Amino acid sequence: MQIEFRPTTADDLDYVVELKARSIREDLERHGRWHPDRSREWVARSFAPEWTRLIHLDGHLAGTVSLRRAPDALWLELFYLEPGLRGRGAGTAVLRRILADHGHERIRLDVLSGSRARTLYEREGFVLESVHEIDEILVREPTARGDGSAGDADYGAIGSGYTNYRQPEPRFLAAITDAFGDARTVINVGAGAGSYEPADREVTAVEPSAAMRAQRPGRLSSAIDASAEDLPFADDAFDAALASFTVHQWADLAGGLRELRRVTTGPVVVLTCDPATLTRFWLNEYAPEVIATEARRYPAPEVIADLLGGAVTVTEVPIPLDCTDGFSEAYYGRPEALLDPGARQANSAWSFVAPEVAERFVSALSADLASGAWDARHGHLRTRPEFRGSLVLIVAR
User: Fold this and answer.
1) In Å, what is the CA distance from 358 to each residue of 289, 351, 366?
2) Does 3.40.50.300 match the CATH number of domain 3-140?
3) pLDDT at residue 252 above 80?
4) What is the pLDDT of residues 48-103, one digit of tens each?
5) Which terminal CB of the chain, N or C, has fewer other CB atoms within 10 Å?
6) CB 240 within 8 Å of CB 264
7) CA 238, CA 201: separation in Å to the nearest integer?
8) What is the longest distance spanned by two Cα atoms in the chain?
9) Contacting residues for 9 by C-beta, under 8 A, at least 6 apart
10) Distance between alpha carbon 271 and the CA centroid of its chain, in Å?
């Protein structure tokens, strides 16, 4: 069974409303809760093109699903399949595909009391968390990857060669070091290969992925195998904390940030991307699925700020033309670089889209570079000293 998740637009709202009626109207009537207008209002509140997808099975429209990111979990919502698919294993196949992509995150969902769907979810590891009148909240806790990766990306599969493309950008490091002030001891959580660990501080690195720990250079201390949500340190153990290019991968954002605050007496510094500004980058023209994936994964800066509390600043970080840290926007003026499969692999968002997306991207960009079409639209970027994209530095004191 070939499963595809295709983007939605605002025009798809009516289909979701109608599909919900076809799928669970009987269950709602059994509870005396079927009201067409209220049902539409509920779907309209839950529906959003940035996280709602159309499910296609073997090329045919078969249903919908939403994966809405909240601070402490990924919510699986609007998961409806055409009634004619019942009993054919479609629900199990789609759910397992979702879990293959997101099983390393905490996932919550809401089912009606007495619904047959609960059996399906329980078979795949969901357990009852709470009951609210006729609604039952089920949760599935994250499972570790083979190499220990605790977030949504499997660095055991994509992490090899990471440091060939992701080297610390000196200007980013300078901004981070400045934010630390006079802090002497720093905990770096989700440390990866140690890109932004300042040499003049005493750094304790935490990284759950064995593949990433193995790529730390010899000049750095070994990283401790642990995750952001459960740091094995006493309260107030460090002067400052760092989380660079990592919070979007945490299974429990609120829990991870709470842990950073717990073990730190001074500033918490987060280098991340603002999902609201990702579309500034020309990649959105060629691979909108990649940008949409990143937008779903990255928490908004204001969410991070609220969770950290205290005096928080959010500062836009300019990206230099010769940026040595090869995240996608680093290539804003060097489009040829993203034709390299290794450069794309060093950006985890590509691991969440179908191979056909990468093939289409390479074909279209290669053609536009050869014809001059890319340069006609974006050639000015080749000499622009810096690009103001989605990168932000969040400092909570």
Assistant:
1) 10, 10, 12
2) no
3) yes
4) 988 999 999 988 999 999 999 888 889 999 999 999 887 778 888 899 888 877 87
5) N
6) yes
7) 11
8) 66
9) 49
10) 14
Q: Give the integer Cα–Cα distance in Å for 359 and 339.
A: 10
pTM: 0.65
Rounded Cα distance between 87 and 97, Å, is 18
Q: How many C-alpha atoms does 191 have within 13 Å on its Cβ side?
A: 29
Is 299 strand, coil or helix?
coil
Strand locations in the chain, DSSP E? Answer: 3-7, 52-57, 60-70, 73-81, 107-112, 127-132, 135-140, 185-189, 202-206, 240-244, 268-273, 312-316, 319-320, 386-387, 391-396
**Residues 361-396 as b or e (16 or more Cβ within 10 Å = b):** bbeebeebeeeeebeeebeebeeeeebebbbbbbbb
Strand partners, 325: 166
All structural domains of the chain with their residue ranges = 3-140, 155-396
State both tokens at 53: 């997808």
Within a 10 A sphere around the Cβ of 170, how many other Cβ atoms? Answer: 12
Half-sphere exposure of 73 (CA within 13 A, CB side): 15
Phi, psi of 110 (to 5 degrees): -125, 125
CATH label, 155-396, candidates 3.40.50.300, 3.40.50.150, 3.40.50.1110, 3.40.50.720: 3.40.50.150
Q: How far apart are CA 241 and CA 204, in angstroms?
A: 9
| Cα–Cα distance, 159 to 147 (Å, whole number) | 10
Which residues, including other chains, have CB under 8 Å from residue 136's CB and lie 6 or more apart? Answer: 110, 111, 112, 113, 115, 118, 128, 130
- Report yes or no: 183 and 267 within 8 Å, Cβ to Cβ: yes
* Edge-first strand listing for the sheet containing 135-140: 3-7, 52-57, 60-70, 73-81, 107-112, 135-140, 127-132
